[in-house]
UniProtKB/TrEMBL annotation:
Residues 5-279 form the CN hydrolase domain. This is Glutamine-dependent NAD(+) synthetase. InterPro entries: C-N_Hydrolase (IPR003010), C-N_Hydrolase_sf (IPR036526), Gln-dep_NAD_synthase (IPR014445), NAD/GMP_synthase (IPR022310), NAD_synthase (IPR003694), Rossmann-like_a/b/a_fold (IPR014729). Its EC number is 6.3.5.1. The gene is NADSYN1. GO terms for biological process: 'de novo' NAD+ biosynthetic process from L-tryptophan. GO terms for molecular function: ATP binding; glutaminase activity; NAD+ synthase (glutamine-hydrolyzing) activity. Keywords: ATP-binding, Ligase, NAD, Nucleotide-binding. One of its GO terms (cellular component) is cytoplasm. Pathway: Cofactor biosynthesis; NAD(+) biosynthesis; NAD(+) from deamido-NAD(+) (L-Gln route): step 1/1. In the C-terminal section; belongs to the NAD synthetase family. It comes from Chelonoidis abingdonii. NCBIfam families: nadE. It catalyses: deamido-NAD(+) + L-glutamine + ATP + H2O = L-glutamate + AMP + diphosphate + NAD(+) + H(+). Homohexamer.
Length: 709
């Protein structure tokens, strides 16, 4: 046998239940791989994903399992999969139990169906809802395909090996683990490696979160750093049909070093990563780790499935092996620029709409949303320039012109992006000018309108029926009147946004409707600083999982890298809703004054509440130390109480929150990530008494120490 083995992985933009598209993307990736392998005359182990990850409750349907096996049958018969060990992910039912599985096959024969043993069941993941974890470690048995509810006529074999085993080829040993298993403290690759497995594969559905990439890379590299080996990771990419964006980053690692890196954000539906590696490097690396070898002598062996196949050739001594590389990470600002933009593109092209509609207020949040759409247009134009025919075909379908080719990002933006400044008597000239200038610089089709007529009509109906006219606080009205008059403006803007999204293209003689974009950030959602069914209510929201602090940095990034000078005045202006009357033509209302807390404080509260699992008392205990240089314990107690009062009063708004790009682990999204009540006892009486008691104790000891110094 030879020394070198060629392994390959991929990142495919699969879509839940799109069996035709998913099959086409798999075959396309295999076509790319075959061209590489034909030119080098080596064999490979190839890893990819079959059915799309986010099928959710569709996994309950027998149709999903049936169609997955039908796709598998097509793959088995395809010439593109011959002479390559292929590893595909799909749901499998065995003896009436549903498993999340890897199906490994070679030359039209299924070698092994390996069920997932550790299921992801936290945060955005609910695998235990649909699948059962395989609990029989190192056990494998033949199972009739008939027991898997499969039409056996589709397959050349009647039985398959099902369970936890590894593959032994002529020249090496290969093992597979699935997604969550890599992150577990007792990952299968640990004992597989001790048992002599040299190549590990993993197919993941790992979504993008800001600043997460380095964690994933470190976990993969550490999998082989302690005891050697080759790790091949495939990861889903794109919008699979919901709030998550799977960010690719397929990679190949050996002996703790990165050998090949896939892109994190890309409009390419298919990306193939190939590396040729020297198996002797794994063996020599392991040879000098004495503690590893001592542990290996005690490990229980895995069942080995013998495969009459070799990944190396006897005459490959002159074949150069790939060398380690340094991973290139994106900055958080680049992640915001690229991730949500790719998510928007997938949503747009798969929703069969003609573009986006955004209420553009001239503030940071809506301007950041506009910049993300502009970034999407830049990426689309770059992909077309680089010859991506799939992207060009999508562009032409969206604009309904088979001959159209985008000239530049501004020109394309004008086709698919409509912005609208919805002024009222409470709007300032400054925000009008900022919105207008930004729209000009990004190239969006911009509309200016005034909502005062509609507001007066709605309030007039109320006054006519009830016999009383509400007033703003500055004119003597109560807090209830003041809030109601602000809310009616916000809600009218939402109604107008949907009307213009449906009909503005029609009025311009263009086909199709537009998706309405929301622009409430994660901190405002956490506090509830938004009107229910206002402009925060939209079809999708690309910034709903991003903090105000990060959005400010992103605006600065766009100003410097996109030469959008309009953003300079936007970033320097204090955030304001402009829903109350102006004072001498100037804004008298600011967001932070309205909320009673700063955006920086809100981010801290959000991370402690969700990520540190802190209730009111626990948050207070942490903050009296974190903020001891800037706040007294009594001030900390007041701030914590105010946050939890506002959070509990406004939690009901999260039940109608616009589906948003998931970018932060403290997102308050009530749909599936942050599962909590939406009707609270907002007095928090027991919890707040605990805080007050602790404040008294701290105050007593502080006075005691001062009196005895």
């Amino acid at each position: 046998m030879g020394r070198t083995a060629t392994v390959a992985t991929c990142a495919l933009n699969q879509w839940a239940l799109d069996f035709d598209g998913n099959l086409a993307r798999i075959l396309k990736s295999n076509g790319f791989l075959c061209l590489i392998l034909i030119s080098s005359e080596f064999f490979a182990w190839y890893l990819f994903v079959c059915s799309g990850y986010g099928c959710s409750d569709h996994y309950y349907e027998s149709d999903t399992l049936l169609h997955s096996f039908e796709v598998l049958a097509k793959l088995l018969e395809s010439p593109a999969t011959q002479d390559i060990i292929c590893d595909v992910g799909m749901p499998v039912m065995c003896r009436n139990v549903r498993y999340n599985c890897r199906v490994i096959f070679l030359n039209k024969k299924i070698l092994l169906i390996r069920p997932k043993m550790m299921l992801a069941n936290t945060g955005n993941y609910r695998e235990l809802r649909w699948f059962t974890p395989w609990s029989r470690a190192r056990w494998v048995a033949y199972s009739p395909l008939l027991n898997m509810h499969v039409c056996v006529l589709c397959f050349p074999q009647e039985t398959v090996l099902f369970g936890d085993a590894v593959l032994a080829t002529k020249d090496t040993c290969l093992g597979s683990e699935i997604c969550e298993e890599l992150w577990a403290p007792n990952s299968p690759h640990i004992e597989m490696g001790l048992d002599g497995v040299e190549i590990f594969t993993n197919s993941s559905g790992s979504h993008h979160v800001l600043r997460k990439a380095h964690t994933r890379v470190n976990v993969v590299n550490s999998a082989t750093a302690k005891s050697g080996g080759i790790y091949v990771l495939a990861n889903q990419k794109g919008c699979d049909g919901d709030r998550l964006y799977y960010d690719g980053c397929a990679m190949i690692s050996m002996n703790g070093d990165t050998i090949a890196q896939g892109s994190q954000f890309s409009l390419n539906d298919v990306e193939v990563l190939v590396a040729t590696l020297d198996l002797e490097d794994v063996r020599s690396y392991r040879a000098e780790i004495s503690c590893r070898n001592l542990e290996a002598s005690k490990v229980n062996s895995y069942p080995r499935i013998k495969v009459n196949f070799a990944l190396s050739c006897s005459d490959d001594i002159c074949v150069p092996a790939c060398e380690p590389i340094q991973w290139r990470y994106h900055s958080p600002e680049e992640e915001i620029c690229l991730g949500p933009a790719c998510w928007l593109w997938d949503y747009l092209r798969r929703s069969n709409q003609a573009g986006f509609f955004l209420p553009l207020s001239g503030g940071i949040d809506s301007s950041a949303t506009a910049c993300i759409v502009y970034s999407m247009c830049r990426q689309v134009c770059l992909a077309v320039k680089n010859g991506n025919q799939d992207v060009l075909a999508d562009v032409r379908r969206i604009v309904n012109d088979e001959t159209y080719t985008p000239v530049d990002s501004q020109e394309f933006c004008g086709h698919i992006f409509t912005t609208c400044y919805m002024a009222s008597e409470n709007s300032s000239q400054d925000t009008y000018n900022r919105a207008k200038l930004l729209a000009e610089q990004i190239g969006s089709y911009h509309i200016n309108l005034n909502i005062d007529v509609a507001v007066k009509a709605i309030v007039g109906i109320f006054s006519m029926v009830m016999g009383r006219a509400p007033q703003f606080r500055v004119y003597g009205g109560s807090s209830r009147e003041n809030l109601a008059l602000q809310n009616v403006q916000a809600r009218i803007r939402m109604v107008l946004a949907y009307l213009f999204a449906q009909l503005s293209h029609w009025a311009r003689g263009m086909p199709g409707g537009l998706l309405v974009l929301g622009s409430a950030n994660v901190d405002e959602s956490l506090h509830g600083y938004l009107t229910k069914y206002d402009c925060s209510s939209a079809d999708i929201n690309p910034i709903g999982g991003i903090s105000k602090t990060d959005l400010r940095s992103f605006i600065q990034y766009c100003m410097e890298n996109f030469q959008l000078t309009a953003l300079r005045s936007i970033i320097s202006a204090p955030p304001t809703a402009e829903l109350e009357p102006l004072a001498d033509g100037q804004v008298s209302q600011t967001d932070e004054e309205d909320m009673g807390m700063t955006y920086t404080e809100l981010s801290v509260y959000g991370k402690l509440r969700k990520m540190a699992k802190a209730g009111p008392y626990g948050m207070f205990c942490k903050l009296i130390n974190m903020w001891k240089e800037i706040c007294t314990p009594r001030e900390v107690a007041s701030k914590v109480k105010h946050f939890f009062r506002m959070y509990s009063i406004n939690r009901h708004k999260m039940t109608t929150l616009t589906p948003a790009y998931h970018a932060e682990n403290y997102s308050p999204d009530d749909n599936r990530f942050d599962l909590r009540p939406f009707l609270y006892n907002s007095t928090w009486s027991w919890q707040f008494r605990s805080i007050d008691k602790q404040v008294s104790i701290v105050h007593f000891f502080s006075r005691f120490i001062l009196n005895h110094l």
